[in-house]
């Protein structure tokens, strides 16, 4: 079993305001399906109202993320599934519910995680 990240940036979600409740309901239904299937690990969206900070090893806190990196926002879902085909199928369900394409990435295997 491998862990997969299914995600989208906020700008990808071009949904009219009057459809947002349906999107929310549909995406929550997919999460419930993933939980029922026993593949759900974690999901959520970045709270864009809270600005990021960078924390150094000595505890120093600096405002903002890495200045050279793209903005990290949007929604994320981590699933643990048997293989890539299963992950693609789940990503398609998420894409349909969120009304936008999803990025799919696999986490490297780490025996300690």
Q: What does this 3D model show about the protein?
A:
The longest helix is centred in the first third of the chain and has 18 residues, at 20-37. This protein has 113 residues and is an alpha+beta fold. Strand 3 and strand 4 form a beta hairpin. The model has no long low-confidence stretch (mean pLDDT 96). The protein has helices at 20-37, 84-98, and strands at residues 2-8, 40-45, 53-55, 61-63, 75-81, 103-106. Strands 2-5-1-6 form a four-stranded antiparallel β-sheet, covered by helices on one side. A two-stranded antiparallel sheet has the order 3-4. The chain has one domain (2-47, 71-106): Dimeric alpha+beta barrel (Alpha-Beta Plaits, 2-Layer Sandwich). Helix 1 (20-37) runs antiparallel to helix 2. The protein is globular, with a radius of gyration of 16 Å.
Quick take:
This protein is an alpha+beta fold.
Q: What labels would you give this structure?
A:
single chain; 113 residues; alpha+beta; Alpha-Beta Plaits; four-stranded antiparallel sheet; two-stranded antiparallel sheet; 2 helices; 29% helix
Q: Indicate the low-confidence ranges by residue numbers.
A: none
Protein structure class: alpha+beta
Beta-strand fraction estimate: 25-35%
The radius of gyration is 16 Å
* Distance linking N and C termini: 12 Å
Mean pLDDT over all positions: 96
Q: What do we call the CATH topology? A: Alpha-Beta Plaits
In the CATH hierarchy, the architecture is 2-Layer Sandwich
Find the count of extended strands (DSSP E, 2+ residues): 6
Which geometry do the CA atoms define?
globular
How many separate domains make up the residues?
1
- What is the assigned CATH homologous superfamily? Dimeric alpha+beta barrel
Side-by-side strand order of the widest sheet: 2-5-1-6
Pattern of helices and strands: EHEEEEHE
| Main sheet summary | 4 strands, antiparallel
Helix content: 25-40%
CATH class: Alpha Beta
**H/I helix tally:** 2
């Amino acid at each position: 079993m491998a862990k997969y990240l299914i995600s989208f940036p906020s700008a990808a979600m071009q949904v009219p305001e009057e459809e947002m409740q349906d999107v929310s309901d549909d995406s929550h239904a997919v999460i419930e399906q993933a939980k029922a299937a026993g593949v759900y690990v974690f999901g959520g969206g970045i709270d864009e109202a809270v600005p990021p900070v960078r924390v150094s090893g000595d505890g120093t806190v600096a405002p903002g993320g890495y200045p050279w990196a793209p903005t990290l926002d949007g929604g994320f879902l981590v699933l643990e599934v048997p293989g890539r085909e299963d992950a693609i199928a789940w990503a398609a369900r998420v894409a349909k519910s969120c009304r936008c394409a999803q990025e799919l990435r696999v986490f490297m295997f780490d025996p300690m995680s």
